Amino acid sequence: MESMESHYPEEGEFAPDFSFKTASGKSMKLSDYRGERCIILYFYPKDFTPGCTIEAKEFSTDNEKFESRGITILGVSPDEIESHFKFKEQMNIPYELISDADHRISSLYGSYGPKNYMGKEYLGVSRSTFLIGKDGKLIKAFYRVKPLGHSEQVMKEFGNSC
């Protein structure tokens, strides 16, 4: 397994920028939102798994509330674009899911690294969420996220920041 250098961005720093393709194939960068929108950037291990499904459902249910406050949700996992397309379709996910098959994006945010499951160590994505202000700076980082109730936790944390 190939290990990548992970960075844990600090609150108040500019969020590490990256490029991605939307579901419609449009090329974008995280910095395209700067000055326009706040961002919820959340990392999750795998489409269609129980915890990831709970988290996606909650963010989907609350998406309109976030959007009305000028907040855009972006989900990131190592799944391929085809898997994201099916996950979005089956779960009615209204926001973008970004494929990070090479772990480049998750490494920028310290969300990719050693994990342990039932005594076996492996490299993988840890569930984490980053709140990014309109200025492009990190407001808050959540590591070791528990999916149930996380969307509400994020809403409270954003407060009147956006």
Short description:
Helices cover 27% and strands 28% of the residues.
CATH superfamily: Glutaredoxin
Question: Would you tell me the overall average pLDDT?
Answer: 90
Number of helices: 4
Instruction: Encode the helix/strand succession as letters.
Output: EEEHEHEHEEEEH
Q: Ends: how far apart? A: 40 Å
Low-confidence stretches: none
The major sheet is characterized as: 5 strands, mixed
* CATH class descriptor: Alpha Beta
Number of domains: 1
How does the overall form come out from the CA principal axes? globular
Coarse structural class: alpha/beta
Order of strands in the sheet with most strands:
5-4-3-8-9
Number of strands: 9
Strand content: 25-35%
Classify the fold: give the CATH topology.
Answer: Glutaredoxin
Looking at the overall shape, the CATH architecture is 3-Layer(aba) Sandwich
Molecular structure report:
There is one protein chain. α1 packs parallel to α4. It is built from 4 helices and 9 strands. The protein is α/β, with parallel strands linked by helices and 162 residues long. The chain has a 5-stranded mixed β-sheet. The chain has a two-stranded antiparallel sheet with strand order 1-2. It starts with 18 loop residues before the first strand and ends with a helix. The longest helix has 19 residues. It is globular. The protein has one domain: Glutaredoxin (3-Layer(aba) Sandwich). A hairpin with a 5-residue loop joins β1 and β2.
